[in-house]
Amino acid sequence: MNKDIFVKLLQERRYKSVKDVLDVMNAVDIASLLGEFDDKELALAFRLIPKEKAADVFANMESSLQSVLVEVLSEKELKEILDDLYMDDTVDLLEELPANLVTRILDASGPKERETINKLLNYPEDSAGSIMTTEYVDLKPHLTVGQALAHIKETGIHKETIYTCYVIQQRKLLGIVSAKDLLTTDDDVLIEDIMETEIISVSTLTDKEEVAHQLRKYDLLALPVLDNDGLLVGIVTFDDAMDVMVEEATEDITKMAAVSPSEKTYFEVSAWEHAKRRIPWLLVLMFSSIITGSIITRYENAFAAIPLLVSFIPMLMDTGGNCGSQSSTLIIRGIALNQVTFHDFFRVIWKEFRVSLIVGVVLAVANGLRIYLTYQQAGMAIVIALSLVATVISAKLLGCILPMFAKKIGLDPALMASPLITTIVDASSIMIYFFIATKVFRL
């Protein structure tokens, strides 16, 4: 719906029309629409959302808008939202809010909810425990299918998902049953006779990125989370895993661009904060170029003897940087998808070496012929051709080795992406170029 029309309805106090519009809109679309309002309009519009949809809209709003609503809503309104919010969404909200608003949320929660929230908040930030929900459907093995369906009808409205049910005995996970199995099986069959006992699960301390990979790998809608004693404490649903994957991809993209990652949206971050996140890496990369400059200075005599050498420096540096970036990007992606591990180190090197040899020879022949035809200097053509082959090989090998070593020592492989790789390759390509030039021309 057009924002201007919606605002006009609010200003004219045609609240019934606004309610009718909100009643048929999707919760995600409502959250997106409210994101364009100022604080006063936001609070008014939110109060007109049907109660059964309000929590879903709230969960899909940006954290800055959630903060505004937590601050302006009454205790009763806040409690109604929290009662309908799934526990993992409540925890996500608390992680984003300032301390004074967190206190307000906890005060509006019941004792049991507060206990669960505090337990979830105590898990490490990047663990499965921090993103799991404790609201799942649990069944006993001795129940019949008919009894299980009755139990789901009674309690399912308060659960995050009913498509996968968990069979437990004294909190020990015995098996899982899908809604499809329940709906297609006779009512008098026991749950223990149809449950799946080959269970894929994770622990509370499993990295949340690994949880997302497991869900994607096995095409699951939810994944059970077990504590150190093997007891079921929660589940991670596919929508939460999708959020993790988007978050990790965003973080990797920013690191690959030499920018410190932020959980806020582009417009939520001020110009000063943007600058602060970019300056450190830019300073590091700028001062690292001193190495390249000192190498060039060292070969001033070569420039004096053959001035034409200088004109090919940008081409060699750019080619080397581009080749290194290609390899590092592919390897970082492979690592992220668990397609490449450190055990594949020599396989990766051998493959990239063959690729670089083919690429290097093609580029060398093309540039060698161009230089010979343009300048009629066979020696210069040979120097550039050899330099290109050596530069491409070294750049591609560095591009695959650095991300793998970064992963091995516990660093994010994305750190070894374009800007850093380019800076390292620039220095190596200059060294290779002048080494070959001085040998060929005997400078």
From TrEMBL:
GO terms for molecular function: magnesium ion transmembrane transporter activity; metal ion binding. InterPro entries: CBS_dom, CBS_dom_sf, Mg_transptr_MgtE_intracell_dom, MgtE_N_sf, MgtE_transporter, SLC41_membr_dom, SLC41_membr_dom_sf. GO terms for cellular component: plasma membrane. Residues 195-251 form the CBS domain. The keyword tRNA processing does not apply. Keywords: CBS domain, Cell membrane, Magnesium, Membrane, Metal-binding, Transmembrane, Transmembrane helix, Transport. It is a multi-pass membrane protein. Gene3D superfamilies: CBS-domain, MgtE N-terminal domain-like, SLC41 divalent cation transporters, integral membrane domain. The chain crosses the membrane at residues 355-373, 379-402, 414-436. Its main location: membrane. The keyword Cell membrane applies. It comes from the Bacteria. It is found in: Cell membrane; Membrane. Pfam families: CBS, MgtE, MgtE_N. Acts as a magnesium transporter. Homodimer. Belongs to the SLC41A transporter family. This is Magnesium transporter MgtE. It comes from Blautia faecicola. The lineage of its organism: Bacteria, Bacillati, Bacillota, Clostridia, Lachnospirales. The gene is mgtE.
